[in-house]
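User:
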Amino acid sequence: MNGRTGTDGPRALALRALTRIDDDGGYANLVLGAELGRSDLDRRDRALVTALVNGTTRMRRACDHLVDRFVQRALQPEIRRILRLGAYQLVFLGVPPHAAVSATVGLAPRRASGLVNAVLRRVSEHPLDPEDPAAWPDEATRLSYPDWIVDRLTVDLGADEARRALDAMNVPAPATTRDDGYVQDDASQAVVDVVGAGHGELVVDLCAAPGGKATALAGVAGRVIALDRSAARTGLVAANAVTTGTTPRLAPAVADGRRPPLRPGCADAVLLDAPCSGLGSLRRRADARWRITEADIARLAAAQRELLDAAGDLVRPGGRLVYSVCTLTEAETAAVVTSFTSARPEFRAEPLGEPWRPVGSGGRLLPTAEGRDGMSCFRFRRA
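Assistant: Predicted structure:
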């Protein structure tokens, strides 16, 4: 790996990105894209920057523990950030100690270079095995999640499945490309299959941006109306329709899914891929685990119930309604669905079949080490 430590080197660029994420609240994927867009790094160094930024952000709690064993005083945010970057290289990325330590020390201000050198050398001499729970104070620290996420998924999934899911979401997401060139996770493609759109049908995608599911549906349905409340995000749907060649059958529109400007009972099928906590797809957003809070779950569940009720109004008798979320919490899945079916008895749940694991009246896909995201899905038929 390249060991350059100057202002144009990969580690310097990674540190700039981490600073923007921490200090300015920037989203990791957007910050990383902007920094790489301005750089002239080669392919290998760009891959290193991506691994450093996403990995250090994802594993920051574990990196802090690795460092704090050898620090006896409070650290300035700038110095902690540099030490996290070094610890990530040493323990999780497998960079040889001489390269990781010297390159990272080169990023430190002169006043702190001795401290950074000493701490990282101690980390390299006393690493912890990321796979050994006994070496860490607790699972949340080892896996680098907030306590509440580990606790919540342990209750909702059981200890073993929660640990496997959390472990899988620390593995970088692979790219899965559809036949039309669109990059989309296998779990999202499985949701499209659940909708089962047919030739000549009208399908409404109630929260469509950025358009992955809407464009896939447009490839098989007669027409898809793709709604999103954000004009900018609706523009993404339109752009992706052009890219995938589905523009003739896809109609994007700016609208609040809670109050869709459509005739009741107009659709053969409605997909509500609702805004959620994203706790099944954390591998794709390195900083998401640090942004979402436990209090957000109740707020999101309330919005999901409102959206699902509005979605039901659009389904014709005999038509289908599919509710999906890329999360695994009970509050955003079974609890939302139970509330809906209690109030709308004309909707009957249907089994999903493979690859979905039956959960309540719907199905679940757990995150896997091979790269699939976690997803929960429910399909209903209107009487």
